[in-house]
Amino acid sequence: MIIPTAHLEALYDLDEQTGSAIMWETKRVALAMKLAWNPAGTSTRQHNEPAGNQHVWHYHQHVFPRYADDELYRQLRHRVSVEDRARKALELRSALFSAEHPYRLTDADMVR
């Protein structure tokens, strides 16, 4: 997920600079997913208001690695263990900082 540090509830609240930065980071994460896991593709998703399926009242952009048989849009849910999530986070972080990444992160890019 890509989440701005400023509280913004929905897409409608984004200024041009924040929206541009979110899309840049979405691209960076999608490219890192390609390096880390070699998916067949990637998808992004973002929701606004209850009818738009928004459940968290802070803007965020989802980025998904995609595979031919993943059934992402069938709303099938399965639990992923904490260990698997931690391993995936480390793999993605490694890819984000990798010299192979065309827009790799550096320590200077980190906002804390």
From TrEMBL:
Residues 1-73 form the HIT domain. This is HIT domain-containing protein. A motif (Histidine triad motif) lies at residues 58-62. Pfam families: HIT. Signal peptide: none annotated.
